[in-house]
Amino acid sequence: MCQKHYRRLMSLIAIVLAVLSLAVTASAQDETVIIGAPTTTAFRNNPLWATSTADFYVFPLILPGLTWFDDQMKPVLALAEDVTISDDGLTYTFTLPENASWSDGEPITAADVKFTWELKSHPALLALPQPPAGRGDITLVAGVEAYSKGEADEITGIQVLDERTVAFTLNSPNFLFLGNATLGILPQHILGEVDPAVIADHPYFEFPNVTSGPYLLTEYVRDSFWRLAAREDYWGKPASIPNVIIRVFAELEAQLAAMEAGEIDVTAIPAAEVSRFEAMEGVNVVSRSGLGYYVVHFNMSEPRVTEGCTAQAVAEAYTGRPPLDDVRVRQALSFAIDRDEIIDVIADGQGTRIFSSIFGPDWLDNSGLEPYDYNPERALELLAEAGWTLNAAGNRLVNADGQEFRQLIYVSQPGEEGFRLGILLQDYLGAIGIPVEIRLTTSANFLPTIFGEEWDLARNAGGSLGRDPSESARFYRTCAGWANALGYSNVEWDALMDAGAATTDLAKRAEIYNQASRILNTELPSLFLMTQNNVWAARDRIQGFTGSAGNYITWNLTDWTIQ
Amino acid sequence: MLIYLLRRLLIAIPVLLGITVGTFLLISAAPGDPLLAYASLDGLDDAQLEQARANLGLDQPLPVQYARWLENILQGNFGRSLVTQRSVAGEIATSFSVTVRLTLAALVLSSLVGIGVGVLSAVRQYSLLDYAFTFLSLLGLSVPGFFLALVLVAVFSLQLEFFPTSGMQTLTLPADASVWDRFGDSVRHMVLPVITLSAANAASLARFTRSSVLEVLNQTYRSTARAKGLRERRVLWRHMVPNAMLPIITIIALRLPGLFGGSVIVETIFNFPGMGLLSVRAATDKDYPMIMGITLIFAVLLLAANFAADILYAVFDPRVRYD
Q1: pLDDT tens figures, A521-554
Q2: How far is the alpha carbon of B248 from chain A, nearest alpha carbon, in Å?
Q3: Which of A51, A261, B171, B246 is most buried when burial is the number of CB atoms within 10 A of its CB?
Q4: In a 3-state reduction of DSSP, which class is residue A297?
Q5: Rounded distance, CA A432 to CA A525, Å?
Q6: Mean pLDDT, chain A, as a whole number?
Q7: Which residues have a Cβ under 8 Å from the Cβ of B6 and sit 6 or more positions away?
């Protein structure tokens, strides 16, 4: 009887397994590309508040802005067909294509553009309880500030010249404006009459079913996927891939497993996984030099200036914070670390050394910088110049008064990578007699720690500094968030950054930024380590996939084909 | 009985309040605030930040913030997510069904497996089968859910390719796929998450059932039933198991909130957009109204499960009287 039971049970299990694994293997794979995306923040199906990677994959395909970014993160025209820049660098005039239409047949007009920009900066919308994310982009335009405070009825800096032409006037010349005109344009004929205070609840933002880009949204399951279908009535170059799905993952491991199992076709992969994916059949790995930087900041001065920060206020308030306020000490620390080894350990070799925060793009003249090749002897020499020498036991630095070089506190957001870097720093600095303590914080508590607690070294990675040298101003300009946190201020450097942003001549810009780069390279407000590569995996049946130095891989999706 | 139930319901109110106060204090005491967690350091201007904080009501003292939240809740208003601008109630409603589906499936599976294994273990006490089940139960109890999930994916998805690695449906199903195909597809996607969620629960149920059945094995009504000439199987399933089940029923009811808790890990790893995933994200984003809303729902579920356990106990055991 036991035997009979056993056999009955086994055959039941076999049947269940057979049914489950046979169920629907037929698929429409040859017409569909599935792109995996991480959930970095909760989603809003709304270009006004697009902040997550998945948003940046989806919106260029359904609701593009006037411009977008190519694989080098250079701004390229998206919805706009043409742009002319006035000689003074103040006015940008965009032309929309003659036949551009929404998927419901209505023409896409200059009025839509103005409507969207005004909506984005509408006082009622800004008053909604929301974190102030992604607002910086639009304030370059004249009149945005007055409009967003309710002092003006319209944004005076945006003028509709005719049905297809719209002109933006800036507050001051700014080379980066094209990269800030990426706000996805919305249909005025659908949203124009809606009260901005309640617009977040409009069904259009639950399901934007009228689109301007090459794709239509056909299905959307929150936190799961967007399903897009190529528009048959598209006014521009038609997409050759009929269906695109952007699928989101809460866990990187799940995303990688889905790629390995063939459930998705394109995904970003961590550097450490390169060899695993290179070994997979039918998968191409594309590695692109990245734009973000990977550094360890020095805490050089105290206290922070919290209100009314100006160069003057900073000059009065900051007092040096020994021993890191001594530039020779910072240079010594920079000589004491082996960047090549750090790139190997932290990024599995997928990175490039940098010597200042100004390291791209290709037109930049970055000559004459000290590379800080690994040289512990040089480090000890510099420390000796600064008054610190190794004690008799050779394990601790002491000064003439017999005081020991204090233990440095290294802080990092959680994660193995930040921890590993801490261990490396302990090794390198320990070898020249400087002890290091590692403190990991939560992500949410990282900034409060930086602004409110004791620390000496802080790991920081990201940004898009490689796309234009002027990006560095956001980090090191007097009173900028990080500069203030580090206690760094150099008015000469600030002036160079202002001059660079206002210059349109590339040769002149290269010269200005070379000077600025040398200042950072010498003064070292941070330990400049590397820029990490962005690595992507894609099925080799997909042709035309280029990856991206930034985060915007779908910028040329209409050029992709399936073989 | 009625009076007892009413009393229980009334006691539930201060308990609920206590839970919300506790949660509120905890998330307020946690370092960071939703704005700092969200905004990047560059371009953060203090006036803007203060304005945003005022918009959120975060500039008010804690008791005022709590009172406001409570006032809204009493009017059925859970507030809006700080991050998505959607109503918290709507977000929870959407994800609730996913979690319920996962949790109920896990409850059924773990109860069937747990009780089945427990009964078999008990009637074959100290047999090889009993030892094997004991070992498996210990394993099920001690292996952490996330680890089990990763092993299941590595073996059954990546190596054997039986089941998908994650998600709730195959996105490339042909548009004309039949209802049966879609149902099968959805079941395939649930197999690994449900096994993960059930494992520990099934294991502990098996242990409880085993000892509970062992207790009734030596009762005299067993001999009576046998003496009446009933077949052994009937004696077991009609006379002994129902009696042994009395404590088990309450245990199952009390397990429900635990399963909801376990869904946090399972939903994250298998990418099921349910309450678990929602709460993880709310916590990461420091989305106060969302965290409070989810906690309130979980607290209500917990109290309801306790309540149900009490009632079930009285219903199944005529000796229990709540007077």
Answers
A1: 999 999 999 999 999 999 999 999 999 888 889 9
A2: 25
A3: B171
A4: strand
A5: 20
A6: 88
A7: none
Kindly write down the DSSP assignment for every residue of B96-146, as one continuous string: HHHHHHHHHHHHHHHHHHHHHHHHHHHHTTTSHHHHHHHHHHHHHHHS-HH
Buried residues in A529-550 as b, exposed as e (16+ CB within 10 A): bbbbbbbbbbbeebeebbbbbb
3-state secondary structure of A528: strand
- Positions of chain B with pLDDT under 50: 40-44
Q: What one-character-per-residue DSSP string does A70-139 give?
A: -TTS-EEESS-SEEEE-TTS-EEEEE--TT-B-TTSPBP-HHHHHHHHHHHT-HHHHTSS----S-GGGG
Which candidate from B48, B83, B185 shows the least CB-CB separation from A41? B83
Contact between chains at A258 and B167 (C-beta distance less than 8 A): yes
Dist CA A556 CA A544 (whole Å): 8
Beta-carbon separation of A254 and B80 below 8 A? no
A176 or B268, greater pLDDT = B268
The tally of CA atoms less than 13 A away on the side-chain side of residue A19 is: 13
Asked if A249 and B166 touch (Cβ cutoff 8 Å), the reply is: yes
Class of residue A84 by CB neighbours under 10 A (exposed 0-12, middle 13-18, buried 19+): exposed
Cα–Cα dist B35/B52, whole Å: 8
Angle between helices B179-217 and B241-270 (to 10 degrees): 140
Contact B41 A447 (CB under 8 A): yes
CB half-sphere exposure, B265, CA atoms < 13 A:
17
Q: Nearest CB to B177: which of A24, A223, A254?
A: A24
Q: Residue A312: which residues within 8 A CB-CB, separation 6 or more?
A: none
Interacting residues of A124 by C-beta distance below 8 A, sequence separation 6+: A195, A196, A197
Looking only at the bridges linking them, the beta strands covering A225-230 and A243-249 are antiparallel
- pLDDT of A6 reads 62
Q: Is the dihedral of CA A509, A512, A515, A518 positive or negative?
A: negative
Asked whether the beta carbons of residue B188 and residue A21 sit closer than 8 angstroms, the reply is yes
For the segment A499-524, what is each residue's pLDDT rounded down to a tens digit? 998 787 889 999 999 999 999 999 99
Q: Rounded distance, CA A310 to CA A92, Å?
A: 31
Q: Is the ipTM of this complex over 0.95?
A: no
Distance CA A249, CA A272 (A): 19
Contact A375, A421 (CB under 8 A): no
Question: A262: pLDDT confidence band, cut at 50, 70 and 90?
Answer: very high
Gyration radius of chain A's alpha carbons: 27
H or E segment and range at residue A559: none
Chain B hits for A263, CB-CB cut-off 8 Å, are: 164-167, 170
